[in-house]
């Protein structure tokens, strides 16, 4: 059975997420991402979510356009179309959204509030855990049936 976003968040070691004001400089955003070893920040204006800024935004909208990161506000380079998920959605749905939209981070919204962030890395780790569990169950099943077959042969 596919895990839900709620289950995924509860299994994460670090459930924190980071935000930055739209008026902050891109330099400050990149500095915050580097310090926290993350690839995206939720952009806010007061209490409202206004976008998301990623390392990819920095590379494509600052570096390639020869803009100054210390003078450019995050609001000028952030992605305004925010894709997000809710707690009851599955990890499979998250993968679909990320793949179709070519994104690597999904904010998690519950009751209109930002409560977390899911990354492609989180989903891949979860997929590996699910596959390992399935493999373990299949190995146990095979060993169990082989053992039962051996006992059946011996009792005849």
TrEMBL record:
Presence of keyword S-adenosyl-L-methionine: no
Domain of life per record: Bacteria
CDD domains named among the record's database cross-references: CBS_pair_bac_euk
Positions of the CBS domain: 9-71, 78-135
Assigned keywords, A-Z: CBS domain
Cytoplasm as UniProt keyword: no
Protein known as: Inosine-5'-monophosphate dehydrogenase
């Amino acid at each position: 059975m596919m895990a839900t976003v709620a289950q995924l968040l509860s299994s994460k070691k670090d459930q924190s997420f980071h935000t930055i004001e739209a008026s902050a400089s891109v330099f400050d955003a990149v500095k915050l991402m580097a310090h926290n070893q993350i690839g995206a920040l939720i952009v806010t204006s007061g209490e409202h979510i206004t976008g998301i800024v990623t390392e990819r935004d920095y590379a494509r909208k600052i570096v390639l356009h020869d803009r100054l990161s210390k003078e450019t506000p995050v609001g000028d380079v952030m992605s305004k179309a925010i894709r997000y998920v809710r707690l009851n959605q599955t990890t499979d749905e998250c993968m679909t959204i990320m793949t179709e939209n070519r994104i690597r981070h999904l904010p998690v919204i519950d009751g209109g509030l930002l409560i977390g962030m899911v990354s492609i890395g989180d989903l891949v780790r979860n997929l590996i855990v699910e596959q390992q569990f399935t493999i373990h169950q299949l190995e146990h099943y095979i060993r169990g049936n082989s053992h039962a077959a051996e006992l059946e042969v011996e009792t005849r």
